[in-house]
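Lab notebook: predicted structure, single chain.

Context: the supervisor wants predicted structures on file for every construct in the current expression panel, including those that have not yet been purified. This is the next one on the list. No modifications to the sequence; it matches the entry in the shared construct table.
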Amino acid sequence: MEKPKGKLIAVGGNEDKGSYPNSKSKKKYYLDFFELGILKRFLGEIPVQHPRIEVITSASLIPEEVGERYQSAFGILGCEEIGLMHIKDASETHQPAYLERLQKADGIMFSGGDQSRLTRFFGNSPFLEIMKERYWNENFVIAGTSAGAMAMSEIMIRGGSAKEALLKGSVRISQGLGLIGGVIIDSHFIIRGRFGRLMEAVVSHPRTVGIGLGEDTGVLITEGHLIETIGSNLVVIIDGHELGYSNISEIERGKPVAIEHMLMHVLAKGNVYDINSRVFYKDKEALQLAQLKE
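Prediction complete. Output recorded below exactly as produced.
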């Protein structure tokens, strides 16, 4: 089977969206940048000494502020070739200037925010076509945090309350950017208690693997199927391939969902999981040893 030459880095996020323009809401969304160690790993995976990075802030409602924080963070790490793409409309993903910058970049980073904005702006666009082509055929690194991570998969969680999860229909699903298939990614997973949300998404799409990303934590995905946990927190894997009985196709919307034999793994820093074989390895060395025995 053909494997992509590029790499994906999906980060659980610790970055919020800014204040929503809603006069009825007084809630503030503070921007709290995630661990610099993950950004350092992102730069380390790019096989260029002085990489050119493009940060895409389209998911955020405060793109300029988010972009400034990325520039500052990358600057601390000694990376100065940082471009900001504040793409705010689908028509801009056709602009030659943005497409040329994408072709020249060594890696790109999608910020957090609303994942539906990413699919609305980039879905079926020339920008997405170039991004996929480079990911499959070059040593190109695509990273995303929070919404930027959730949008990577073919099947994307668009929304849904964690408190109401496992009541049929509480999780909203739509099509993602399609950089990786067979998985469903959720972010802010531990602190926001999104176990039920991801379980419902997986049981609604049997034979998928759910990836729940904790904050300050991410996964490095190589060859399109090997996951290595990076960062300071946990990654939860929910495997739906061996599901037994579920009543989800029988019950009405809002009724409790029953699930038999859903498998779960919890990965800490350095642990590896193979999406294809669905095998857990304690580290990369254990994976390499197993590959030598095959």
